[in-house]
């Protein structure tokens, strides 16, 4: 097992977090991936369990069709240790998903016994993992239910709008119902606004969450960031794809806030936890070449991470200064096109367009 140079105090016993909301498209997979990466960067040994048959986390950290997987374990064709796959990130392992997991959902496969099964399979020796993060499918089916039963806490990502709040409400109700029965120790670790644009609707959502679920909503939220969409296309966690972008900063602060909450829930001494030390460790580790072999965004500004401060997401609008200038390559190509167009359209037009092309060539050269 890879050991961390900045090994923090071990989390023991392992803390299992289900990332779940009744509603789809709220950022469950994005949060699962980036939270796992940041926990690993903080020095914790982390396992991401992808139980969504859509396999989104799997395609980023492993490959579809990877085996043995969870279904092989449930069918007793493999043991859980064999289903742990190393990833391209230090300290981070994955149990990949498979489309065969839908068989659990529809109950078509009578060899499979869900519910408490997942909890039993995800029980590891105390020194194996600090954190297990479960990326759940949307909808409260057998898979999500077994994930909640296997978990110590639930992180509920949400976007803004009435339906999202409804989704949060129903998820909290489900957790309360489980606490009264199958999972007495289960807690909501936090509600996270995972795609914050600073609109009036977003601000209203924050207010509503604050009044309905007082103390549960994370102070830090994840701002909308086109880099997350670019990273998705490249099949990379955005915190590795672009370390300097504002959402990476948000994920670092979220991870530190979550660690602080777990620290308090476990009644550990205050002196053992420092928000600033955690964020600094994550920031430094994300920048170490040995931490991952994920290819970074070629356009990314890698001179520093984000421009925020703790709780940077609290002031509303995503900061326009966070957005990177267009890449110099694009400017160079535009200049060449204008210049050629000028040449083709004759001397007088070329004289007119020439200075524009020249300015663009100069700007591109300066950016380089
Ligand atoms: N902060 C963000 N900024 C921009 N896009 C985001 C952000 N968070 C998530 N997304 C995008 O939103 C979509 C839904 O996110 P995803 O994590 O797949 O949700 P879920 O797993 O709940 O279905 C994806 O295309 C993802 O890249
Ligand atoms: Mg998903």
From TrEMBL:
Which residue spans traverse the membrane? Answer: 332-353
The family database entries (Pfam families) matched by this protein are listed as: AAA_31
Q: Where is the composition biased (Gly residues)?
A: 305-314
Q: Where is this region: Disordered?
A: 294-327
Q: Domain AAA, which positions?
A: 15-180
| InterPro entries given in the database record | AAA_dom, DNA_Partitioning_ATPase, P-loop_NTPase
Which UniProt keyword terms apply here? Membrane, Transmembrane, Transmembrane helix
Q: What is this protein called?
A: AAA domain-containing protein
Q: Native species of this protein?
A: Skermanella aerolata
């Amino acid at each position: 097992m890879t050991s961390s140079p900045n090994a923090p105090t071990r989390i023991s016993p392992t803390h299992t977090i289900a990332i779940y909301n009744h509603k789809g498209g709220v950022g469950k997979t994005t949060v699962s991936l980036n939270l796992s990466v940041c926990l690993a960067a903080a020095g914790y040994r982390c396992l991401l369990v992808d139980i969504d048959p859509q396999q989104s986390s799997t395609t980023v950290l492993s490959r579809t069709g990877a085996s043995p997987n969870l279904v092989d374990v449930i069918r007793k064709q493999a043991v859980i240790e064999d289903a742990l796959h190393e990833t391209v990130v230090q300290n981070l392992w994955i149990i990949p998903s498979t489309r065969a997991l839908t068989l659990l959902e529809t109950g078509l496969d009578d060899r499979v016994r869900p519910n408490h099964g997942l909890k039993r399979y995800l029980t590891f020796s105390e020194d194996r993992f600090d954190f297990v993060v479960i990326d759940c499918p949307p909808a409260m089916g057998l898979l999500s239910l077994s994930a909640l039963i296997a978990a110590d806490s639930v992180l509920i990502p949400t976007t803004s709008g009435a339906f999202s709040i409804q989704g949060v409400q129903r998820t909290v109700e489900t957790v309360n119902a489980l606490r009264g029965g199958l999972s007495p120790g289960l807690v909501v670790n936090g509600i996270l606004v995972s795609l914050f644009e600073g609109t009036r609707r977003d601000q209203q959502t924050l207010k509503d969450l604050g009044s309905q679920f007082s103390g549960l909503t994370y102070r830090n939220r994840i701002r909308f960031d086109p880099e997350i969409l670019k990273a998705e296309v490249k099949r990379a966690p955005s915190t590795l794809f672009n370390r300097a972008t504002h959402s990476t900063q948000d994920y670092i602060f979220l991870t530190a806030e979550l660690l602080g909450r777990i620290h308090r829930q476990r009644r550990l001494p205050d002196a053992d936890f420092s928000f600033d030390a955690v964020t600094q460790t994550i920031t430094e580790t994300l920048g170490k070449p040995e931490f991952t072999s994920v290819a970074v965004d070629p356009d990314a500004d890698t001179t520093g991470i984000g421009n925020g401060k703790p709780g940077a997401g609290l002031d509303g609008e995503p900061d326009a200064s966070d957005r990177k200038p267009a890449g110099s390559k694009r400017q160079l190509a535009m200049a060449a096109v204008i210049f050629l167009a000028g040449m083709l359209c004759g001397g007088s037009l070329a004289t007119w367009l020439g200075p524009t092309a020249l300015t663009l060539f100069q700007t591109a050269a300066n950016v380089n």
